[in-house]
Amino acid sequence: TRPKKPFELPTLSKGLAVSEGTVNDAGYSLRGLSVQLAHLKAGDPAELSAHGNFIQGGITIPFDLVAGIATPGLASAFTLKATGQLPARVAGAAATSTGPAPIALSLGGSYTYAEPIFTLELPSLGLQATSPIPSLSGKALIVLDSQLSLTFDGVLASWPTTWPALPKPLSTGDGKLPVHLGYRGKADLSDPLTLVMAREPTVLEVAVRVPELQRWLDASEASVLPPLNGKLRTPALVFDGVELQGIEVEMSDGGGPAAVP
Fold this sequence. Notes:
Layout: E1 16-24, E2 29-37, E3 46-56, E4 59-69, E5 75-86, H1 88-91, E6 101-114, E7 117-128, E8 136-144, E9 148-156, E10 177-185, E11 193-199, E12 202-208, H2 210-218, E13 229-239, E14 242-251
Antiparallel strand pairs: 1-2, 2-3, 3-4, 4-5, 5-6, 6-7, 7-8, 8-9, 9-10, 10-11, 11-12, 12-13, 13-14
């Protein structure tokens, strides 16, 4: 339970330690959770380390993280670095001969909780991963109240090797693609998430639902393309040496019209 209002940060002069902890939520769980917090006091910087297993939809991801909080309480600047292991059945060709494929996440920014609104401002966000998970960097804003609002603006470091190859001109240049991601809906990400990638004058707009994407990743005999709706607009496309002019393509997973503006 939480303390009665107004919220007061407890003082833990000898810190906090958790071993073999368990956290259960409707959509995920944490198992074998270990947490170390050496000191906690209002106004004093704090550092928390944790490791365990994140479990969702039959997928288990071991993780380690370290979080630094400048002024613990309802609002603070913070940093977070986390590493994990993507299971071989999801990583596919990215899995190594010695085990699952590694992923690494780094965040820097601030959080604010003014009931009932929780806000994360992240001017620094980086994800390093191996295909099919993309590596990217940029900035993000996350707001959680009765719904979840998420925006991300950044750069896709390279097109994942296990994704279908991009046609020219999207595949030209240094491989980096500007990316905008937006979401407004249920907190479990079950509503459509929109993704825009552009290398002007070529623009690709996609709408996808995360639960359907997870089922596609889990399927042993999935289609080549993930379940998505989208539009591609470009003055020209090149396939196997054949150039097409004035192109506008709509993609659909068969569930209805493309949910992209």
